[in-house]
Amino acid sequence: MKSGNHARAALSGLIAHAFRARRPATAALIGLTIASVVVAQSIPANASELATARPAQARSAPSAPSASSGQSTEAPTLRPAVVVSIRSLTPSAARARIDAILTSEKSQAAATASSARAKTVRASATRKSAAAGAAEAARQAANNKLQEALAALAKALSSSQCTNVPGANGQSSVSCALANGGQGTVSGDGGTTVTTPTPSATPDPTPTPAPTQTADPTPTPSATPTPVTTAEPAAAPTSPPATSAADPSPTPAFTPDATQSPVTTTDPTSSAPGASPAAAPDPAASAAAVAAPQADPAPAADARAADVASAGAEARAAAADPSWAVVDGTATLRLTAREASDGALRYDPSTDRLVFTAGSMRVTVPLGGLTAARVSGVDGGTAFTVDLRGLSPSTALSMDLDGVIDALHVFGSGDAAVLSAADSPSRLSLASLAAHFRFDVPRLALLLDGGLGAVSVGGTQAIATNGADLTVLGENLDVAAGSVLDTRGTDRTGDITFKASSTGVDADASLTVQNASLIGHSIALLASSASETSAATDTASRASVSVVDTRLQATGDVTIASDCDLSSALTGSTASSRATSSAASRLGGSSNVTAAGTLRLKATNRTDVRVTGANPMGAGIADADLTRVTTATIDGSQVITASALVVSAVSSGALVVT
Asked: Has residue 201 got a pLDDT over 80?
């Protein structure tokens, strides 16, 4: 029994510790264990123990009275044995089961709270919807009452017939055909206004009923805006009020103006049937009473009409294609950025006209008699092309392009031209004998293609592209001495590319840069020539780039390269070829090169000459003379700062005579 008491005391301590640790589930399990132990100690586990206990009780009990004494000697009956099985858990398993129970309880509590919040939101939405419905119903009821009041007012204003014309937002107007042949209109918005026209100078005291009038679909214009309403057939005067045609616009419908002061009147011509004509009011007094509302149309209506007219004019102007305007020999074309985008201005020699095209748009003007042409409004366009090819020195046309676009492509007239700064470093001029073209430096790129002509770039004033790329093409290019070309901008630095190109039997491409300054990102000074023939005896291909006493400053690479290609194939009984191929690249004098990237000086020469003597009647004669020169030279006193320097001169090809 002592050991049992000690066990119960220990378990009681565990239960108290579990409750202090806020683990009621653990305490419950421990309490269940105590109950099981108590039951196990107080009740025999099986029948054999019960049988063993009974003899012991019999031996220790006092002797029972004899049967003759009349008392019962039977032993008391015990309740059946109860067997309880307890599965012990490890501490970790018990903690896991307790945590699962706690988690389940938290989830149930969260679900209950979420459900309560959802019910609250639904109830709030229901209340808001009901309130909105009630407000709308109240507004509708107010509008209905206003309509009823105006209808009643229409009956009270005149004995003639009136019509109630419902309007928007609870507003309405009442139109009445008055006895003097006029038309009265009543509108209500914070007051009641009655507008009546000036009565006829000679009112008819006994109006004659007229047949039903049909509204004219094109109302007669009136100098004074009056309400336009449709009324039931009513008595009309034999002489209707005169109208004026001074206002060409149709009579507008009456619109209540909240800024007008309420004016309450009654119809002075209204009277009981059979009234004497002498009761008619003085026409002059009636005119004076209504002069104020008639003389000044509603300012709001005038403003709306002006806005509509302005919008219509703008829409018509936007829908119409632009056109040339010629004044004193100057043709002007005004465009929008949308119209100028991807547009092209060129000369058409077949029709002798200047032509502007953009998509399906085509606008032309005869060149004859023109001394100048100007295109404006291109600012903000994406790309624009100006083609001066075909113009001759006899035209001597002055052209201006006003506005800054993203990219500009200019084709020269084909004769010698000079590209220089015009009014400022960012406005350039391309001048030749055929045309003088002035334009703003584009935002991103300028491409000038001089074609087969010679192009000189620069001058005494610097050319600044403000970050745009500068590319100049032509057969013979020259950067004038003392020129400064700068493509640096606030957010980027543009590339500088000069490329001289020539083709033909006698191809000669040259680029010369002397005593100039070129500042840009990547600088490429190139020349290429190509000659191919199967008939000419003499052929030549020459490409040369010469940079002398020049400062080249680049945040990228600097490339000076010449490329030459010559191909000649002759066949005949007497075949002879004289060919010259030359590729030369030079950096000389006291040039100064600063490049964050690589400085490349290259010359490439490819030649292929084949001469065949073929005579069906006998022996053929063939000979060839080829001169091939390939040089890449750095001479003089150079100052070169670059991450790498590459100098190469490469020649290849074949000379075959058979």
From this structure: no
